[in-house]
């Protein structure tokens, strides 16, 4: 019996453990931290061996295969030892994909993954049997085990792509590449770029690669490292023969001789970046033969995802907006770009080597006050100190919202768009966003 060791007892880890057990592996789950009670119950109910707050070497280094959760960096000593022993390490998407013949749509990028994956699923779900997994919802492995959909839309992070071997989506989508997570890539942008492009590395000419032709990083990398798949670019600026572009206020998608044309006003999501997300999702749907009318209607009735430019409440004519999912500067760039009123900006958290300069034009133009919400706000204070009249520090969400309430006047926005990870004060960005919403409702 082959032995599968799962590092990390979270959603992807436990899903992999269940699928591994069903496929005849002797499974062991090991987590350096604490495993949540809900996952422990699942492991115990299924009689899967596990340990927490430690990695017992003899129980790990006798593995035939190791599935590593995406949150665990390669430089961790245990991971190094596994590699020294010549044991194959895979990610959950690699493991689960081995056990399904489904058509896979893989979506990656520095920003917009969740919105695009959710929107793509929303469109496909009208006519196809389709699951949504990856970085979102129930794990891919668990869905392969329990549902076995005919199609999957996977939101895939660079960390998940780092540990693929044969994984290949029928349709790969690369939305954009901006510096993010550089702490995991030796602070080398080119390492991070290469990681994102792994989504297409196993594709053949029968597969499709949808990408942003306006993104200079993607275009340059494609010139230097061509992919085998059929290219379907999308662009807001250029005319595209095969792919998607904008012509006379219409989105025009051309694949072979089939065309789909719809007004940009069909897209309910606001902002230029969401127009691109909609083009990417519609191109996938058009490829998979979803009816044009269905695509148009789906774009009209889709209202976005939680924690991404989510309107919470209007109080005294001040709009409170939760963009907690903005964990890097580029995401916050989109948020500030879409503000159409003076804005009180709540920012801060764990800085991943951020360069805030690209935000300067918006600070001058739109931001009237900055509230720094983090354990260490020094870099923010140094960077933006001279640019706004009001700059405040706090370590509590409830206090940040109360300060914003005092500063904001009728017609203003209060925007939580942290540009940083959340782990200094919160469990994750969802926890941060929910605390913000709760604090707003308690005003």
UniProtKB/TrEMBL annotation:
EC number(s) given by UniProt: 6.3.2.9
Keyword S-adenosyl-L-methionine: no
GO molecular function terms attached to this record: UDP-N-acetylmuramoylalanine-D-glutamate ligase activity
Sequence ranges assigned to domain Mur ligase C-terminal in this UniProt record: 307-420
Keyword annotations from UniProtKB, A to Z: ATP-binding, Cell cycle, Cell division, Cell shape, Cell wall biogenesis/degradation, Cytoplasm, Ligase, Nucleotide-binding, Peptidoglycan synthesis
Residues annotated as binding ATP: 109-115
Subcellular location: Cytoplasm
PANTHER family: UDP-N-ACETYLMURAMOYLALANINE--D-GLUTAMATE LIGASE
Family classification: Belongs to the MurCDEF family.
Purpose: Cell wall formation. Catalyzes the addition of glutamate to the nucleotide precursor UDP-N-acetylmuramoyl-L-alanine (UMA).
Name recorded for this polypeptide: UDP-N-acetylmuramoylalanine--D-glutamate ligase
Phylogenetic classification of the source organism: Bacteria, Pseudomonadati, Bacteroidota, Flavobacteriia, Flavobacteriales
Name of the coding gene: murD
């Amino acid at each position: 019996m082959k032995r599968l060791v799962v590092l990390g007892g979270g959603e992807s880890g436990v899903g992999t453990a269940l699928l591994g057990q069903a496929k005849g592996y002797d499974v062991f789950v090991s987590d350096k931290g604490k495993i949540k009670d809900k996952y422990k119950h699942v492991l115990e109910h299924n009689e899967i061996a596990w340990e927490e707050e430690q990695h017992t070497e003899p129980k790990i280094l006798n593995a035939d295969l190791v599935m590593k959760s995406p949150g665990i960096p390669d430089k961790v000593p245990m991971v190094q030892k596994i590699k020294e022993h010549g044991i194959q390490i895979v990610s959950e998407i690699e493991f689960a994909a081995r056990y399904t013949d489904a058509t896979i749509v893989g979506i990656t990028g520095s920003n917009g993954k969740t919105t695009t994956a959710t929107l793509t699923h929303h469109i496909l779900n009208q006519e196809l049997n389709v699951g949504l997994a990856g970085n979102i919802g129930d794990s891919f492995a668990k869905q392969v085990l329990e549902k076995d959909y005919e199609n999957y839309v996977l939101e895939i992070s660079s960390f998940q792509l780092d540990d693929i071997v044969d994984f290949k989506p029928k349709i790969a989508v690369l939305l954009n590449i901006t510096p993010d997570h550089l702490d995991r890539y030796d602070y080398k942008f080119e390492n991070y770029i290469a990681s994102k492009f792994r989504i297409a590395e196993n594709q053949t000419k029968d597969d499709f690669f949808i990408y942003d032709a306006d993104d200079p990083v993607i275009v340059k990398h494609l010139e230097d490292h061509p992919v085998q798949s059929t290219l379907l670019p999308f662009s807001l600026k250029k005319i595209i023969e095969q792919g998607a572009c904008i012509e006379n206020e219409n989105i025009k998608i051309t694949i072979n001789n089939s065309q789909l044309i719809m007004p940009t006003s069909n897209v309910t999501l606001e902002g230029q970046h969401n127009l691109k997300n909609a083009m990417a999702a519609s191109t996938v749907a058009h490829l998979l033969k979803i009816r044009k009318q269905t695509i148009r209607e789906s774009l009209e009735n889709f209202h976005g995802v939680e924690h991404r430019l989510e309107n919470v409440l209007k109080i005294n004519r001040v709009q409170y907006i939760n963009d907690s999912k903005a964990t890097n500067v580029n995401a916050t760039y989109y948020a500030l770009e879409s503000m159409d009123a003076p804005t009180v900006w709540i920012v801060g958290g764990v800085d991943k080597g951020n360069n805030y300069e690209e935000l300067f034009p918006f600070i001058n133009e739109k931001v009237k006050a900055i509230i720094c919400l983090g354990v260490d706000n020094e870099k923010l204070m140094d960077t933006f100190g001279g640019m706004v009249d009001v700059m405040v520090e706090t370590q509590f969400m409830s206090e940040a919202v109360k300060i914003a309430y005092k500063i904001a006047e009728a017609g203003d926005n209060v925007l939580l768009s942290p540009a940083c990870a959340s782990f200094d004060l919160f469990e994750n960005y969802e926890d941060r966003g929910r605390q913000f919403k709760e604090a707003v409702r308690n005003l």
